[in-house]
Hints:
With 371 residues, the protein is mainly beta. 12% of the residues lie in helices and 41% in strands.
Amino acid sequence: MYLNLDNQSKFSAFLKKRNYAVLLVFASILFHSNSFGQCPGPGPCAPGTFDPAFEQIDPSSIAGAVFCSGQTRTFTIGVGPGTTNEAATGDLEYITLYFDFDCDGVFEYSVNDSCSYVNPGGCNVDLSVTAPTVTVPTTYNARAHLVYNTPTTDPCAALTWGDIEDFTITVNLPPVPVLISSDTDNTICDGDSVTFTAGGGDEYEFFVNGSSVQSLSTTNTYTTSGLSDGDSVTVTALDTSNGCDTPSSPISMTVLDPTLTTQPVDQTSFAGSNVVFSVAASDVDTYQWQVSTDGGTTFSDIFNGPEYSGTGTANLTVNSVDVNKNNYRYRALVTNSSASCPYETSMAAILTVRVRTVVTNRRITHRVKKN
Ligand SMILES: [Ca+2]
Ligand SMILES: [Ca+2]
C-alpha cells in the first residue's frame, strides 16, 4: 500500500505534532506487525448512554489490568462517585465486564460481581477473567457496565444511571520458565547444598513446597542445604515488560540420610562355629565391614574369602572362628552410593571365642544351677 502525497504530508504534520513516544509506538507497530494481533473484529454494538452524575468506574483500574494467555487473573475495578451524586454506604454497585474474545464483534464472555459502597470514597469489585490462549499478544474489545443494585445482562443496553466504559485489553504471552538443579539426578545427601537456576523471565521468586523461600528479584539462582526428602522446588518467572508470570514445573528432590538403626552386638562362640554380626540401617545400599585386632584402636576393611562372608552386606559371617580371633572387634560402615553420602560408622562389637573344654564346663555348671 502506498500513501499519496497529500496523505504523506498530512502524516508528516501529524508526526511533528506528536512526541517521540508516539513515534516509537508507531515504529513498533510497523516493525512488529507480524508478532502482534489486533482482534477488535467488527465493531460491537454501540455503548448506549449513561448518566455521569452517578457512580463511575475508575478508568485507571481497567487500563492497568494484566491479561496473560490462558491464565485466570483477578481484575480489581474501582467504583467512585459521579459528577454530582454519591451512593450511600452499603449500596451495592454491580460491575459487569463483557469481552469479544472470539473476535466476531459480539460480546460473548461476561463476568460480574458487586461491592458495597462506602461513602465517601467508593469500593472495588474483584472479577476473575480467564484470558484466551494466544500465540502472539492480542488486543480485544471489552466493555464495562456499572449499575446500582442490579447487574446488567445486555452489553448493548443504555443505562439509566451508572457508567459504561469501552476499552481494549491486550492478552500478553506469559514467560516460559526454565528451572534446573545443580544436582544432575536430584538425589542428594542430607545437608548437601544445591543451587537452582531459573530462566525465561527477568525476575524470579522461588518456592519450596509452595512456600516462598526467596522473594521476587532479578536474582535467578537459589541455593539451599536445607532440603528434605520429597521437597518440591519451583520458580515463578515474571516478564516485567508485560506483567505476566508463570510457575515452573516442580523439581522433586530425593534426600538420602543413611542412618544405622540397629548396632552390632557382642558375640560369644565356640571355636569352629560360624558367627554372625548384623546391623540394620535406613537409606543405605552399601555396607563395608571392618575388623580391629588391637582392641579397637585401628580398623581395616575385610573381604569375602575363607575367613569371612557377607562383608558387603548387613550381615557379616565370621567363618569357623578360631581362638586367635578372640577379642577381635567388628564394625560396619554404611552409606548410600546413589548420592555418595558420607559413611556412617557403627559401634564395634566384640567377638569372644571359647574352646570346647570351657563349653563343656559351662554346660555342667548350667545344669547344676537349674536343678
Ligand atoms: Ca464475540
Ligand atoms: Ca545427585
